[in-house]
From TrEMBL:
Keywords: Acyltransferase, Biological rhythms, Cytoplasm, Melatonin biosynthesis, Phosphoprotein, Transferase. InterPro entries: Acyl_CoA_acyltransferase (IPR016181), GNAT_dom (IPR000182), SNAT-like (IPR051635). Gene3D superfamilies: 3.40.630.30. It catalyses: a 2-arylethylamine + acetyl-CoA = an N-acetyl-2-arylethylamine + CoA + H(+). Belongs to the acetyltransferase family. AANAT subfamily. The keyword Transferase applies. One of its GO terms (molecular function) is aralkylamine N-acetyltransferase activity. It comes from Strix uralensis. One of its GO terms (biological process) is circadian rhythm. This is Serotonin N-acetyltransferase. It is found in: Cytoplasm.
Length: 183
């Protein structure tokens, strides 16, 4: 009796299999998957998405190197989208602009697919993203804005609160947070 490995094909060659878990920058082709996860994650909580589909495509075309997706068996399960910002604090313009000479990364959104929540994936993805940013010599810090209930999550990830953010979206007010990423 001849037994074959499950990864072997009849000719003895290995079949291609998807990696169990992979982290990579997102591309414009990932925009729909990103939007589906984001929409589900944010609509029920705040009634709106941080980025709409056209804005996701905009940032993934302009600065894909400032995004990171977590894929399991080829399926997007969590992501971060960022862009460069060139001022000390975030303003309304930071929601849509990418400033190529900026030294701060504005993290627009971090979202995890509903079936993968409460497993620590958001923290792991954010940690990997911040480590990645340390490899970019022009990046000095990461900025984000979040609602009050997320402040403790980001503090556990090493962010410090800067105080109320001047950006508002409808009735929503945010806390601005930062993390130093200099090596």
């Amino acid at each position: 009796v001849h037994l074959r490995s499950p990864r072997s094909s009849p000719g003895g060659q290995r079949r291609h299999t998807l990696p169990a878990s992979e982290f990579r920058c997102l591309s414009p082709e990932d925009a729909i998957s990103v939007f589906e996860i984001e929409r589900e994650a944010f609509i029920s909580v705040s009634g709106d998405c941080p980025l709409h589909l056209d804005e996701i495509r905009h940032f993934l075309n302009l600065c894909p190197e400032l995004s990171l997706g977590w894929f399991e068996e080829g399926r997007l399960v969590a992501f971060i989208i960022g862009s460069l910002w060139d001022q000390e604090r975030l303003s309304q313009a930071a929601l849509t602009l990418h400033k190529p000479r900026g030294t701060a990364v504005h993290i627009h959104v971090l979202a995890v697919h509903r079936t993968f929540r409460q497993q620590g994936k958001g923290s792991i993805l954010l940690w990997r993203y911040l480590q990645y940013l340390r490899c970019l010599p022009f990046v000095r810090r990461a900025l984000l804005m979040c609602e009050d209930f997320l402040v403790s999550f980001y503090q556990k990830c090493g962010f410090e609160a800067l105080g109320p953010c001047q950006v508002t979206v409808g009735e929503l007010a945010f806390i601005e947070m930062q993390h130093s990423v200099q090596g």
